[in-house]
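Form 7-S
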Amino acid sequence: MIKDVLVHLDGTSRDEERLQHAEAIASVSQAHVTGLFTNLLPDVPLIAPMDAGAAAAEILVSLTEEAKGTGDVLQRKLADRMARFSVPNEIRRIDGTSGEISNEAATEARWADLFIMSRPYDANGSEQWNSLFEAVLFEGGRSVLVVPPNHRPADALRRVLVCWHNSREAARAAAEAVPFLEKATKITILVVDPEHKADGNSQPAADIAKHISRYGAPVEVTTAESQGRDVSDVILEQARRTSADLIVMGGYGHSRAREWIIGGATRNTLITSEFPILMAH
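Output:
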């Protein structure tokens, strides 16, 4: 059962989408919603070199105070909006550069059941939060619900598509999705390009399907061959076929000098999905 929902807020028009999803999910179990307001401050190296002197320092101080003042105004507006929620709520605020905010957001995510944010890697301004998404996904230890643009929350997440293959990430995602699986009315497990054993007795996802079925909803296992297509296209095609309210999948990436980078089917699915995605690593 979800009891703490953490939702990313940044003072932009996308806040309303995220807040609607947070309230809809929280209302099911009367969970507490915390709005995590991230207020960007000027980044010193981007403004002036370190040896630029007193004039640059004065400019930085001025820009920082201006950003904090703008943040005060936005925070009050967000508090007024959340005051109309039907569930208990609060706002927490992080002031800092992009890197500082990303690290703190990952720390905050560890005490919540779910972190909600807009789709990363878009070209609509949300790309400034790509590092926040990756920090929360790879370092936060909990799941991230990614909301696509202009998506209104469903009354209930009844049809769930679980993307499965034999990996730790897929298992983590399925485990994090339990609160949604328990309330689903139909669950589809999708296996793309399943391994075919020599004895011909392979039943892809049979064990995980048996496990998930114990939560109460009917479970269907579907296999699909990509046949040269991107795996993300196969996933989204299946989501449309089943009229999915939610896609559940593992978040995959690789580490480069301790920096996690999203790639492959994970990134492509995020970029193109019109469905909310619950992702865990």
